Task: structure prediction
Amino acid sequence: MATCLTLLLLGALGLLTATGHRTGPASELLTPDPPTQPHFTGCRSREQETFRCWWSVGSFTNLSEPGALAVFFQMTNTLYAGWRECPEYTASVQNECYFNKTYTHIWTSYRVQLRDTAYNITYDERCFTVENIVHPDPPVALNWTLLNVSRSGLNFDILVRWAPPPSADVQMGWMSLKYEVQYRPRNGTRWEKMDLESGTQLSIYGLNTDKEYEVRVRCTMSAFENFGEFSDSVFVQVAQIPSKESMFPVMLLLVFGGVGLLLLLLLIILSQQERLLVILLPPVPAPKIKGIDPELLKKGKMEQLDSLLRSQNVCKPHSAPKDPWVEFIQLDMEDVVEKSETSDTQHLLGLTHLGSSHALSLKGDDDSGRASCYDPDMGAEPESIPPVREVHSPVVARSSFSTHIHSTTTTPEAAGMHIPVQMQPSSQSWINMDFYAQVSDVTPGGGVLLSPGQQSSTPSKNTDMKKKKEDREEDVAEEEEEEGKLQLLVVDSDGGYSSETVARQQAADAASSRVAEQAYHTLSEPPQPHPQAWQGGYLAPDRQPHMPYFSPEAPLASVLPPVSDYTVVQEVGGSHHLLLHSAAPQASVCPPHPLKLPPGEPALPLGYLTPEFLENLSP
Amino acid sequence: LKMMLLQGWLGILFCSIHGMLGSVLDCEVGGVHCTMSIEMLLDRAIQHAELIYRISEETRTQFKETFIPLALVTQQGHADHLCTVILPTPSSKSEVGQISDKWLLHSVLILVQFWINHLVDLQASLDHYDNTPQDLLDKTKWVSSKLMSLEKGLLTLIRKVRWDVLLFFNKNSIADHLASPRTMEHVMRDYTMLSCFRKDAHKIETFLKLFKCRQTDWPGCSFY
Result:
């Protein structure tokens, strides 16, 4: 079969020559339309199952009568290779040849000719395959739904939906369609084209709320270039929300107003910088001590400062003293401070001029001196004592030791006996001594190393404890009660008193500096507030006899008249008793203990006596 | 006893789920021994066919724009009519309705195999041109590879459906199939080949879709 190509080329040439021939006379007549011969105007298929061809007679009006011109076609790929005439000339439409399903074959080349049957002239010819002339029908059921409106209310998004043309058999797969959506503002001229869509819906974003839009859609076969007609347009418009729109300028105003205010504030701050600084950050007052010129502080005149400080009463009570004797003590304290020039060691060893009546006279006053600086209740907490005590411990030590040493110089035992007697009546004098009841160290065996201040003050501690007991009996706090009770348990024994005195005696008698040093040992670990530990400290017997220790000892009880305030801990033994150790070898100073532990008995651990246990023991 | 039954059912349930998941997962990951259902295979084949058809059309258009001067372009730009019949295929809806599923699938396979062989010639011919755009060559190569994978998929599908694979060997060169005079230039010949290939790619896509429709029980698919 001759190629359509060459035929078409010939046809084109013929056309040209024909037109060229005709234009001659036509140009003379000045006819605007160039004369044309009959030709096909188009061949189209809507659904790939049928197709139509139209033609026009052109200038050959005499051929416009039906039947003057005929369409013949030839199909390739079929057995029948001859020419056939148009199967059906559409009755309603002029110059249309309709090929129904029977005559429509896709993937088949068609060759269609427009002939003048009378004269056997072929005016036009076309070659095509049906799938290449498919122009699908427009989609149907186009509608839109609002997706959302922007926060500013200026823009909105819509979802456009449609259905494929009913004539196209998409479901079976006979045709695969692609859709193109176009939209434009109502009064616009240019259409916005969206990308080809395989599905039947599409979202359009960023439309303006103040405009009305026109949307339309058309389709084509996939990978073909022939679009069908456009569908009917739908009009899209979203009602404006006036409040939102009017809000915008208000917000702008607010923003600008805020910015202006900020600027104003900045200006104010900058201009009044100094004043504001003074108000916001008041200057720190220079250090001031009453009676002392700040100049002294600045220039570092230490000696003058020292003298000044000494002259002043540094330790003044913050509040009105509760007891009248505090004031009394205060005054005495001043005198005492002036005289405390010797070291503690010297005091302990009695190397200083202890024989001064000062010491004795001061015995009773020592407490007062110290008490002026301390809250009477502070004595209950041993750990709080060390830092404050340092100032006055030499004083007390000196005084207490002076008394002690003084007494011991005569007869230790007598002194030992004497002191308690002396001490006992002046219960008050011991009250303040508790501040110095410092356990310098606790030995692994459970023994307690006391500093001289402590030793001397332990009785005061006891008394203070006793006083505390009285105080605390009024207290509701369980801890205090328990503590008091526990303390009392331990302390309330004649032995306790005597033990303290014994300990003091021991310390005093100990000529070796070692003892003194030991005595001066400060607690590496502050005694725990836990009554148990404290109790342990009290109760723990000391293995090392040379270590000063104090434990409730009954033997002195026999020596000393029984004191109603202190009950005697009779026995500690086994796992449920309070054991009372006999005195150490140095205890030869002390009267023999009536109750003696077997030498091999292990020392009680510090925490031996549990609070619960002690509770049981309490009366 | 009840507990045992319950356990048994649970076990079966878990095994089935595992089996399903396993098969799905295997195929997703690309396992060697994964099993795909007929539907999945068919969908994959249709995807291939759609892509191949689209790229073939792009290739043809590009070739036309690059090599064929405007004067020689036909009215429609297609030289489909020059293609010879590789094998008789239905050409209308009614004819398609008269052939069997088996034949549909086999004809697709034959077409695919034909063009795998002949695209090689086309590529060789394209290489001879002086100013062939690289994009064009890449596209033809891509199409060849996709055709081969489509062939594999089709073979698997046919075996799955338990049909015997019809062997159709056509080793004649494309020149024999083109009813074109030898005076035609190489360019036109290649263009014709591309057009024919495009047409056949469209055939492949349509047949596969029709076949898929037939697998469903939708009444519109099986017709007169």
About this structure: The CA atoms of residues 97 and 139 of chain B lie 34 Å apart. The longest helix of chain B spans residues 38-67. Confidence is low (pLDDT under 50) at residues 22-26, 173-184 of chain B.
